[in-house]
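TL;DR need structure tokens for one chain.
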Amino acid sequence: MLYLAIIFHMHQPYYKDLLTQEAQMPWVRLHGIKDYLDMLKVLERYPKIQLTFNLVPSLLEQIEDYTQRNIKDKFWELSYRPAAELTAQDKEFILESFFMINREQVISFSPRYYELYFKKEAGGEFATQDYLDLQVWFNLAWIDPYFRQNIKELKDIVDKARLYNEEDKRTVLDKQLEILEEIIPTYREFMSRGQIEITTNPYYHPILPLLYDTNIAKEANFKTMLPEDQFSYPQDARQQIMEGVRFYQSRFGGPPKGMWPSEEAVSDHIVPLIIQSKVEWIVADEGVLFRSLKIKKRDTRFLYQPHILRRKQGNLNIVFRDRNLSDLIGFVYHRFKPEVAVVDLLKHLENIANVFRGQDTLVTIAMDGENAWEYYRNDGHDFLELLYQKLSEADFIKVTGVSEYLKQHPAQHQIRRLAAGSWIYGEFSKWINNPLKSRAWECLLEARRVLDEMQENKQDIPELAWKQIYICEGSDWFWWYGDNHEGFDRLFRKHLENFYTLVGRKAPDYLARPLTAGP
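>> reply
TL;DR here they are.
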């Protein structure tokens, strides 16, 4: 039998300013109304399909900030503001920001939204009604098609199409909150009935091997450019893991069995830390498997089975994703009609089943559960519905969770040393290996050493200061350096500035300007 494990990873960076409680970007709210709850609603009609969802704790924390009204969001505030009361500055912000969604797959399918897009591109003058319609369409378009079709109030507003009033707008914005409020309870419900497994993540999504020691990057790529000073805080890696486990327990009523190391970044150094957290299995990329086994050629005999890491601290199971199948869904199939894409994927799976006929094999698809669907028509629903239907009908496949599989098929093959690497080219260059990324690590190290000094001097460290430094250890800031992403540079520097405020120190002058400007 071919067993198929599908793992969807849900993550957003930590956007909230701890001092002002303001979300610097709206993506937690907008992805919250588009990408999390609907993934369960689609699954509801296919009880034979058991999926795994990796929910990053810092993402769930920010969703709760919205549902508990603990956060400010400029995009949201300007959406609620009556169009007739918008200032010139408000209007400038709205025109600049309220078309931030996929033009081909979303904006172009609404004649009024598309009309407003071209009017803005042509430099046309917007009337009050234009601003009101834009406020509505930006917030309506981000709501998943499932809810636009199945919530009557939203369907009516979609059908109305234009000439909206303030009451229409309030309805859209209020429904957003209702969707956000359903997310965590609905995941708990699906988990309790056994249709999904939920895994966790190190709390603020750090790259664990680099947090442990930036020099580990050279194990994956010996040409890696390292920061001038070595960042090495294994204790922070341990804390990020333990905080992730504790958060999971508090929200889902028990310990997590599985963990998705951020960006599937692993090394042998972090294995004992994960074992100590009592997590039973993790997932990594197939490139890490073949390097661990010192195999130069892709060998699916090893890929399509779980493995075990035996260490003096205990044992940890590990599964490796099929990169080809995962990337087909993530990056290729959006170009195909759903029928063609699903037939192609099923053919790949049938070929695997034929090669391993008479054997039990585990094929793991692990991928981003949010961003891929933006490129699909109808936010991926047509593809997912057809995929789940065909998988339910296929007699040679059982779609299962990793924990469920391991109960019946314990790992037999041992990996003596786990190679260092991630799911991005099997190395760490997305987070290190260029001068700007090195500069970011050096800024983080300077801040982290303040805590060392305070501990040595037995000074009290505010709990919020620890939280802030752990936020600064997140992967996203380092990912974007070198890609000219001004927003993430600004947010990283703001988080660091807040850290110095929280410990009663003056922030270094260099944080007042982009790191791209140099020291």
